[in-house]
Hints:
There is one protein chain. By secondary structure, the protein is mostly helical. The chain has helices spanning 4-34, 51-58, 65-76, 87-91, 94-97, 118-129, 140-151, 167-178, 188-192, 226-236, 247-259; strands at 107-108, 115-116, 199-200, 203-204, 215-217, 222-224, 269-271. It has 3 domains: 1-34; 42-59 and 157-271, Cytochrome c-like domain (Cytochrome Bc1 Complex, Chain D, domain 2, Orthogonal Bundle), CATH 1.10.760.10; 65-151, Orthogonal Bundle (Cytochrome Bc1 Complex, Chain D, domain 2). The chain has a 3-stranded mixed β-sheet. The longest helix has 31 residues, at 4-34. It is globular and about 50 Å long. It starts with a helix and ends with a strand. It binds heme C (2 copies). One heme C binds next to helix 9, helix 10 and helix 11.
Amino acid sequence: MERRVPGSEQMNWLRAALLAALISSCAVISSAEDRAIPLNQLRSGSEFLSPELRALQADAFANPGMLWVERGAKLWSTPAGSAGQSCASCHQDAAKTMRGVAASYPRVDAKSGFLLNVEARINQCRSERQAVAPFRYESDDLLSLTAYVNSFSKDYKINVVIDGNAETYFEAGRTLYYRRSGQMNLSCAQCHEENWGKNLYAERISQGHPNAYPAYRMEWQSMGSLERRLRACLSGVRAEMLPYGAQEYRNLALFLAWRAQGLPMESPGIRR
Ligand code: HEC
Ligand code: HEC
């Protein structure tokens, strides 16, 4: 009897390992099937722009979004709060410490369990580490610092975590994406998965990826966040407008990032 114990433990271990391998391969298969747009068919929104706007985005001297990036660079080393610390006091040279960071956002903050986008992360440092008021949503300060941080992820491929403590947020985002809403009773998917490439009024519908944001939009004559873009889509279908910072936008943003997994970051993008 006693000699069989180690043997059966080994059996249990083997069975557990097999099960784990099976479960993880199932997960891979099911998430690949869940992708309405296969990874090798992803197309950035910039591919749907006119040649003029695409050229403007590519030209770092002419791209108006660079004004926000430059302003962000100044803010980075501007002290705030009674300790007189700037972002640079802790993070030093952003070109080194922020490289590729934004490509993995939205991301769950391990301590609080909250899903944070880059804007929320910056404001978390403002309130918790500098002990000053967070920047207002869509303020030039927040857009500038976000554009600055994101600029160090340019050409980095989007790569977000959706399992573990991110899973609930991800699933909530996915549900929202496929839910019909507004007076027009349309889901995000009906435009960006079923009808991309087609014209809607004066616009060509893209696959609806988040990789260009914050982006300078001609219609706004300004830089705007991904949330501002999502609000434009919601108002387009006459749906209820959620306030900036709403959890729903972050959940959606995580789902959007996963849909765009592998697509290079472009911020500051130019959009129509
Ligand atoms: C009635 C069609 C329609 C619906 C529904 C819609 N959008 Fe859009 N969306 C557009 C159009 C038009 C644009 C601007 C052109 C483009 O990039 O597709 C756009 C742009 C976007 C962009 C920016 C793409 C880029 O590269 O700049 C994202 C992200 C996006 N939508 C996400 C969503 C999400 C998430 C939903 C659901 C909450 C949604 N959209 C619902 C039509 C729609
Ligand atoms: C007193 C030090 C301190 C200051 C000042 C500070 N931060 Fe942070 N910041 C941190 C620490 C520590 C972390 C890591 C937090 C964690 O992982 O829980 C962090 C994380 C971040 C991250 C996420 C990095 C990643 O790899 O995910 C960003 C972006 C960021 N800070 C931006 C800023 C900006 C912008 C400012 C200025 C407005 C700023 N921080 C000011 C200490 C600071």
